Amino acid sequence: MPSESTMSKFKIIARANALERGLSRYFTGKPCKHGHVTERQVSNRNCAACSNIVHHRYQHSPKGEETVRRYWQSSKGRENKRRMNQSPKGREANWSYRQTPKGEANRQRVGAKRRSSETYHEHRNRQDRERRLDRALDVTQPDHDPARAARLLARWNARAIKT
Q1: pLDDT at 5 exceeding the cut of 60
Q2: pLDDT tens digit string along 90-139?
Q3: Best label site of 9, 33, 49, 79, fewest CB within 10 Å?
Q4: Taking a C-beta distance cutoff of 8 angstroms, is the pair 28, 40 a contact?
């Protein structure tokens, strides 16, 4: 038998009445075959709790995760993410999430993953080499050594020819 708190949350309405009124959900007050006492969808008579469970199970399956990843990498997904991040609501949600322990852990994990990638290290090494070369070629530096600058420049040009 449904609890009083569940019954007081929803108003009992027949599917036919919900259909007439253009509602997307209705409430019978009876449990579904899995025991959930909650709203049902007018379109297919499914229990809302069961639908959420099925959706969650799919989203966290390998196939579902791949589908979600492909969506966010598509132009439509990137555009939606950009639009959400630029809205005040999106910025607030992002900031709130980053303040939670889960958000902080995710930020650290992503940062560590980025720093451990090969392209990151190639980029940092190239930046360091460029900085050293710029400093060696700068004649205004007190420790300017023309011979060292020539060696670095020759090495730099040899690397550029290889790639």
Answers
A1: no
A2: 899 888 988 999 888 888 888 887 778 778 888 888 888 888 888 888 88
A3: 33
A4: yes
* Radius of gyration over every alpha carbon of the chain, rounded to an integer in angstroms: 30
Structure token pair of residue 62? 């390998």
21 vs 13, 18, 30, CA distance in Å? 11, 5, 21
Take residue 156 and report the two structure tokens written for it.
């730099």
Token pair for residue 82? 């950009």
Q: What CA–CA distances, in Å, run from 64 to 44, 56, 102, 118?
A: 22, 9, 22, 28
| Alpha helices, H only, the chain | 4-9, 15-21, 48-59, 62-73, 75-86, 88-99, 101-116, 118-137, 146-162
pTM over 0.85: no
Residue spans of the domains in the chain: they are: 4-48, 61-116, 118-162
User: What type of residue sits at position 73?
Assistant: Q
* Under 8 Å between Cβ of 60 and 54: no
**What is residue 74's DSSP assignment?**
S
| Alpha-carbon gap, residue 38 to 51, rounded angstroms | 11
Confidence at residue 49, expressed as pLDDT on a 0 to 100 scale: 94
